Fold:
Amino acid sequence: MTHNGGGMIARRDLTVRIAARTDLSPTCFRFILETAEEIAAVPGQFGMVTCGAGFDPLLRRALSIAGVARREGVTRVELMVKEVGRGTNLLRHATVGSTLRLLAPLGNGFTLAPVEGTCLGLVAGGIGLPPVLFAAERLAARNVAFDLYVGAASGGELLDVERCRAAAIAVGGDLVLTTDDGSAGEHGFVTAALQRRLDGGQRYGRLLACGPNPMLAALTRLARERALAAELSLEEPMACGVGVCLGCVVELEDGRYVASCKEGPVFSVDRLAARWWP
Structure:
């Protein structure tokens, strides 16, 4: 469940219409899904989406929510998807106007409360951008200061750069772009750019991050070394999204194993077992 003003709105399995689909990069695309039902999602939550009308593929795909807006009785849910296999290929070629099923909102989101005296540091790697951009735009709407770090393998894989820049500029923050191959922004990993700024005296009250596991591991080491509060949106494989199949279990520091889809996907770094960060 998520909190929205005065009430609690539970997850629901909704029929949604594909209102728009656009390419963001050679490998990634954007979906806009529409429903008459209200969906009160917060940054960091996700949905389970069918890949077509039938049962092949049988399993839905877990996709982070990049934004939710409701106007004139219609809720528009934004998803950013990376094509990595048959299911996401089917989604990329689904017909605009056709319908899918969306189970949402699922999981727990980021802590967006400001930290007095400092700004927040938002870090995204590759297709980890959707929940981070969702957080950036929510923070901008609340006038909470942040810097936004976005990394990708190459310049062509940096997603929605102007939108990222607009969110950061709205609160007087910096947008730092990095690419592994140096084709755009700073050359190197996004965590290295963050470390350079921390070394230069930049302070953050909290880090919020999503991206591939090696990036999250590097960021966790950095946060632990410097006693920085940090929350990570983990990208564990999910089959059901509601804690039944236990395919996405995460080991916590106290030795417990929990379903990422229910207790996460956002975890504070101090809750996670050290073995996640070799």
